[in-house]
């Protein structure tokens, strides 16, 4: 197994542990929107948005080279 996959698996396990410990419902307010959701969903959504932004920026960076 490649060492990168081992690091990815460890990070995924840490993410699972973090999200299971932060399952409480919180109120989220943004501009005119207000809703209640699990803190784990907020963390996971933030992770997904960060991955997408990183993927898009690396694609643009490599395309300009």
Describe this structure in words.
This protein has 65 residues and is α+β, with helices and mostly antiparallel strands. The protein has one domain (3-64). Helix content is 69%, strand content 18%. It is built from two helices and two strands. It has a two-stranded antiparallel ribbon with strand order 1-2. A hairpin with a 2-residue loop joins strand 1 (25-30) and strand 2 (33-38). Helix 1 (3-21) runs antiparallel to helix 2 (39-64). The mean pLDDT is 86.
Keywords summarizing the entry:
2 helices; 65 residues; two-stranded antiparallel sheet; alpha+beta; 69% helix; flat
Helices and strands in order:
Elements: H1 3-21, E1 25-30, E2 33-38, H2 39-64
Antiparallel strand pairs: 1-2
Helix pairs in contact: 1-2
In whole angstroms, the N-to-C terminal distance is 32 Å
Roughly what fraction of the amino acids lie in strands?
15-25%
Low-confidence stretches: none
Count of runs of 4 or more consecutive helical residues: 2
Order of helices and strands: HEEH
Identify the overall geometry.
flat
**How many distinct beta strands?**
2
Summarize, please.
The chain contains two helices and two strands. It is flat. 69% of the residues lie in helices and 18% in strands.
């Amino acid at each position: 197994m490649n060492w990168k996959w081992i690091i990815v698996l460890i990070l995924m396990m840490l993410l699972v542990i973090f999200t299971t410990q932060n399952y409480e419902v919180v109120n989220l307010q943004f501009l005119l929107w207000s809703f209640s959701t699990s803190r784990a969903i907020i963390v996971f959504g933030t992770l997904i948005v960060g991955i997408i932004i990183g993927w898009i920026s690396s694609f643009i960076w490599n395309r300009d080279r």
